[in-house]
Fold these 2 entries.
Entry 1:
Amino acid sequence: MFKAVINAETLRDAIEAVSSLVDEVKFSISEKGVELKAVDPANVAMVSLKIGAEAFEFFKTTPGEIGVDLVRLTDVLSMADKGENVQLELDEESRKLKIGVGSLSYTLSLIDPSAIRKEPRIPELDLPAHVTLHGSELRRAVKAAEKVSDHVVLGVSDDVFFMEAKGEIDSLRLNIPSTELLGLKPGEARSLFSLDYLEDMSKSIGKAQEVTLELGMDYPLRVGFKIGQAIEVNYLLAPRIEQE
Amino acid sequence: MFKAVINAETLRDAIEAVSSLVDEVKFSISEKGVELKAVDPANVAMVSLKIGAEAFEFFKTTPGEIGVDLVRLTDVLSMADKGENVQLELDEESRKLKIGVGSLSYTLSLIDPSAIRKEPRIPELDLPAHVTLHGSELRRAVKAAEKVSDHVVLGVSDDVFFMEAKGEIDSLRLNIPSTELLGLKPGEARSLFSLDYLEDMSKSIGKAQEVTLELGMDYPLRVGFKIGQAIEVNYLLAPRIEQE
Amino acid sequence: MFKAVINAETLRDAIEAVSSLVDEVKFSISEKGVELKAVDPANVAMVSLKIGAEAFEFFKTTPGEIGVDLVRLTDVLSMADKGENVQLELDEESRKLKIGVGSLSYTLSLIDPSAIRKEPRIPELDLPAHVTLHGSELRRAVKAAEKVSDHVVLGVSDDVFFMEAKGEIDSLRLNIPSTELLGLKPGEARSLFSLDYLEDMSKSIGKAQEVTLELGMDYPLRVGFKIGQAIEVNYLLAPRIEQE
């Protein structure tokens, strides 16, 4: 049994944070809320999403798993008007999810969870440098870097968070001293990342008031932010090898 | 002689209701106003438009007929700024319509009315069920249904107006009880329609405060709504055969 | 040495007035400000731009020349948020222009000025008729004319500024009497121009409160307008031969 009501835009924002990387996912549903972990087809980026039960207007469930095509789910959620809620209800027998939007009732066929790629084990990493900034600042830097190159160095040097993008002709550097950051735990950090993935992530990141980046030397980047109070998104992005 | 002044946006809205189905039309002009009846090239949908003389700021005419390319007329009307009027004046001799928009004067070549497809005879149908609702609600339902299928069932069952769209994977149902409609005359009604045509019509329907649908059992759908106080649009859409 | 601070949007508007005609330009920098003259690849239109030192928040320079790819410069300026300033600083040694936008620092490689097409000598013309009008009015007329033809006649007849576009089917005429113009110096004037070029220019013209056109009989069109108080843009557009 799964029955829930949630603001359509909130759910859409949560789904978008995942659908930028993967199309089909397995949601784990329990009393605590809805969770998922997924890895992109190229094994470069992982995402975990936790929608706490408090994020819902109404939430009642027995523990279970459902497989969902995020493209179709997003399509349905886009039927809702601004501020409108959606009703979700699992039909156990037919394995379909009924999604109510106003007077509309959409019947979404679920995917057999066993047909969906296995959940990744997300490694525990103790990354030395932590940077907290506005999501919109990171999004702007990523969009700017794309005009110059297809990969970018992120790092921390002394009390400064930096980004470097070098193109064949022009180059771009971002320097934000700790005084202009929302938070900084300094540490040795410098790693190269693909801008394709950062751009995919930055659509969701850009909406977040506060984003925390965790960085090391040629180590993955961890990005964490919240949607509202009760939804947590975490990305883990593998580094690329920097060539001289 | 034909000379008239009308708000450009109002005229554009009226024309758009027709141009979504046909490109070239024959307007009948009389003291009462401007009228047309037309059928789409595939003979699936008919439209009638009545622009009452009261819809014009100024209106003076002798009875007559003019043939107009609606694509070009819409182009000209889009030159007007918000709230601006257009001046229309027929040059009898050259068979051209002078359209004044601000300081611009556009000379639109008319089409010989005899070269335009004959006006359809719109059948008098006494359809059992009548449903009145906000145009925006119908538009939203049509747009939602398009994500699922390319045809849709519209009907009335007891005191409920319903829409059903069945796709290969997902399905969608709309239920609006009479308490949430602007009006309902119950009656046995269930017919299948092409979403292509409904979508073409729904651009105009979506702007109307109030739309009335008339339905029967495997019978055409009649849709009626007003633009402002003095412009009436009516569609008649042939049903498709429902296959099991 | 060149160091300057300017509102990003102001600079972008000034650059756009030029980049609609040419891609690579040579800026002449002096204490008075920044200037350029350029001609389009087909030698049909010339543009001159003067950004007075007063247009800058900060301006300090020694005289010099720099070659700039306007497409890339526009790209960088688009990184700025509304109302934000950009910092410009020339690195003499590396021949690069550092462009600071917030925490971002873009390094723009300059072009060797000797590799850029020689500046045109802009002819001194004493054109008989002068017309001053709102930029948005001219832009609207140009956009309307494009729906009818690919060239247009501009002229002055008695106290009226007119535009004529003749298509194969329809035609368009603009008449603005002096009473509805911001200014008119009457004179014999009628010349034919390419709408392609006028359209390119009209994006910038459309933003100007006040635009002055200078016209003659089969003579070039001169267009002058200001961006803010201290930026001047002038176009000179060669006429085409009118065929009967």
Entry 2:
Amino acid sequence: MSIIVPVILCGGSGTRLWPKSRPERPKPFIPLVGGQSLFAQTVSRFPAEEGFAAPLLVTGAHLRVLVEEALEGRQAALIVEPVQRNTAPAIALAAHRLPEDAVMLVCPSDHHIGDTDAFRAAARAAAGLAGQGHLVAIGITPTHAETGYGYIRRGEQLDGGFAVERFVEKPDPATAEAYLAEGSYVWNAGIFAFTAGGFLSELARHRPEMAAMVAEAVAKGSEADGAFVPNAESFTRVPKESVDYAVMENTSHAAVVPAEMAWSDIGSWHAVQQAREGDADGNWPGERGELVDCRNVMVESDGPRVSVIGLEGVIVVVDGGEVLVTSAAGAQKVGTLKGAKGE
Amino acid sequence: MSIIVPVILCGGSGTRLWPKSRPERPKPFIPLVGGQSLFAQTVSRFPAEEGFAAPLLVTGAHLRVLVEEALEGRQAALIVEPVQRNTAPAIALAAHRLPEDAVMLVCPSDHHIGDTDAFRAAARAAAGLAGQGHLVAIGITPTHAETGYGYIRRGEQLDGGFAVERFVEKPDPATAEAYLAEGSYVWNAGIFAFTAGGFLSELARHRPEMAAMVAEAVAKGSEADGAFVPNAESFTRVPKESVDYAVMENTSHAAVVPAEMAWSDIGSWHAVQQAREGDADGNWPGERGELVDCRNVMVESDGPRVSVIGLEGVIVVVDGGEVLVTSAAGAQKVGTLKGAKGE
């Protein structure tokens, strides 16, 4: 089996994790679960002895310094996008920089995976299918009727996975319940494996204009200071589209590898709370919290002491002079706050 | 009718209003309801044109500077206690500094009274009864089955009030409900009227040792910098006891004047919340709060923005680098927090 090249997409953002996640220090670069940042956890997931090549990172110009700092000297190739064009063009850039038969394992840089062994096993299965010409999604076996993710329905069994029957949009609660009960749906986690040549070939088939424009941006691109930078003028004209819409939902070679790997996209403070292990009362007071008569209360503070009395299911985040107090459900709306919008 | 001398007791403290109330700037001196501090509201309650003499303030040495600042040039006599000995000795000090027939109107300095006219009417009725030889409590007509206050049961009708049948301790919830339903109980608000001579006479009858020791501390006391200071050595030997225990519960001349005057002892952040007028959702965001999907949420902040999502009945107080988040019921326990205890 050919070596697997981790392609790590680091686009930044994460306004729902405000006030800790901010434009100048976004979500991938802050420690949210365990001592390491999500970015550091991601790059640590691919040691050479487990059969992974050094990762190829695709990031934005505004994040380059943060990325290089967070690499802490680890070997990695870097592609710096002059503007961000969503995941399909970002992955196409990476594919152009790799041999045709290299297996790309595309991963976001801001997810948490609790079971690394299960992840690597799924990655190897996906790489195997990719080597046979499939474009493979690693799908997460649902643990609850989540409405915040897209789902993938599996079809006929393949060697190490399944053909994809179809991709479906984020469901309403009743539909999510039905998917969970039905048993053949997994969450679309945005983790994919395919060969570089296979991806570019399918991109050219389903998005010929995008494929041509990215190829032009690469041809006119330049290597500088250890990073590859596509031509800005060309790349700016590339349409914004996700890999799901541009390729995965259109290709007739889609496959899925289901995995149970304690995955979370850490998409909100409630997701952070769920990924952390609380005490016997479900509380997570951190170093600065004093909790009295509380259950399932999480405190995150960059300094000020936080005293909480008589509450259940509440999250308090104090950072950079901002105070956020939210219910678990309310955590989804953090991005709409004035502070999170920079107002 | 003789003139009424407001005797304002200013002992400080207020740990249940931490983190805004602190040892160096306790409860009476912070604006909690309306723009003025509770102390300023108290001294403003007694204008000369309404028949009140300049107030006589009894405070501790550690609060003298705060008291003098908060007076803002208003005329007032000052007694500075070298140590604090609870309310009976404090009132006895004041009584010694007044003519025998002066009517003292004893008030805490840290209560809120929403209806000043009703208060003054009750004060005049109480003063009238005091002039007839009664020791009078102004009792608050209960609005709910409160367990945090002592109660007074009224007896036979007098001119402008009632004889006291008995004082009762803070009740349990069932007893409080019974008091409320029964209709002849009022809350003991710690507001009293009596003549100076009448009070000292009853103190001598029921607490002869305390009366003698206070008299000695006054005789050996000194006037300095516009304040009277009882002799420290003598006053330190005076036992600590409240006026309720030492005199009011023992005298056979106790009377009570019921009043409906939108009174609150502002005994907790929940009491502050109740004394303030919220918006249509019961929210009080203040100047620094952004509330989304909230009901009955109050935010008090000395600077940092406070964003709250999806909560009901929660109080957030940010002050001096401390963050407090509590339920209404939890507000009673604020004094037990490490921060409030200065740890």
